[in-house]
Design a protein that fits this description.
Rossmann fold, 42% helix, 13 helices, 6% strand
């Protein structure tokens, strides 16, 4: 039987059609994905930071991005930093976050807020935490396959599945114009809370993980530590002050799992020394407002400056971008 050769022109046209379809699909994903410039997972703005320009990177949950204020830290210490955290981010997602963030930055220290150790296996914000990571990243794939609920994986692998119904509220011009979240972030990944919500009293965290979940979280924490060590970047851990801190017996278990060499700062123990007032310095029982954050960041800055990896960096020439960020944070303290 005579074989027919496929004409090269037909093959080329078919390949071109596939490329055009792929290009349109990617552009549609770009246009339909909601813009994100606060409340964590701000990858577009993080990637606007000049390469290797950050002294410290902060990871964790909303208790990191609501409480850690890089502008305030720079004003006090001259250290540059960014909060690459995500809402209720589990540690199984934090590990690929650290890996991806260190592709463009080489900080002297990675700082991780400890609330993720107390989370359940899934916290309900996986679509946001993973969906805003760079699209074709091995680390995003790891986050999807390892840390995402099975029900979320299809939409994370093919984002149009999650956001195709937004076409009715999205202008066709969005296919061509730049996104507003592709800009330098004046808050460097933080989300300052400019509202005072008085808290009646301090208690302890009530929603605790199961023993199985806690063991999984500790294993992830050790994996993050070991990966950072392989990269030559030390991991420093801290607990922010709140009105519902991690119970002390659970903190002891965390310290025991990490061993004597771990860098752990429990700022909750210094709650009164920082001058924090539950009636004035909180947005809710877990998160500080900007006035409480200003007090906490003074203690956080002292801790950072005491780390040997950051010694001497505060003596550099002032940076215009970071001067603006410091001034921006100071302006927030005057708002009521």
């Amino acid at each position: 039987m005579e074989q027919r050769n496929i004409p090269w022109r037909r093959l080329a046209l078919g390949l071109l059609a596939c490329l055009l379809l792929a290009g349109f699909t990617l552009r549609a994903e770009y246009a339909l994905l909601p813009e994100r410039s606060d409340y964590g997972a701000v990858w577009s703005m993080y990637l606007e930071e000049p390469e290797n320009s950050l002294d410290a990177l902060f990871f964790g949950s909303s208790m990191a991005y609501c409480d850690v204020m890089p502008g305030a830290l720079y004003a006090q210490t001259g250290l540059t930093s960014f909060v690459m955290a995500g809402p209720e981010q589990t540690l199984s997602l934090t590990l690929p976050y650290v890996k991806e963030a260190l592709r463009t930055q080489r900080p002297a220290v990675v700082c991780l807020e400890l609330s993720g150790v107390m989370f359940h296996r899934y916290q309900g914000y996986t679509r946001i935490n993973v969906g805003y990571m760079p699209r074709f990243s091995v680390n995003r794939l790891e986050a999807t396959l390892r840390g995402a609920e099975e029900s979320e994986r299809l939409g994370l692998l093919f984002p149009l599945y999650n956001y195709h119904d937004r076409w009715q509220e999205t202008s066709p011009l969005a296919l061509f114009r730049p996104r507003r979240d592709q800009r330098t972030d004046p808050n460097a990944g933080a989300t300052p809370m400019t509202v005072r919500n008085p808290q009646e009293a301090r208690g302890v965290r009530q929603d605790l993980p199961t023993e199985e979940e806690f063991a999984e979280n500790l294993a992830c924490l050790l994996e993050i530590r070991d990966w950072c060590a392989q990269q030559g970047v030390p991991l420093a851990l801290f607990q922010v002050p709140s009105c519902a801190p991690i119970p002390e017996d659970w903190m002891e278990r965390i310290r025991a799992a990490l061993g004597n060499g771990a860098i752990i700062a429990d700022f909750d123990r210094n709650f009164d020394a920082m001058g924090l007032d539950p009636a004035a310095d909180f947005y809710d029982f877990l998160h500080l407002n900007v006035w409480g954050a200003a007090k906490f960041n003074r203690a956080l800055g002292d801790w950072l400056q005491a780390l040997p990896e950051l010694a001497g960096r505060e003596s550099r020439e002032p940076d215009p971008l970071w001067t603006q960020r410091a001034e921006h944070f100071a302006s927030l303290l005057t708002e009521e």
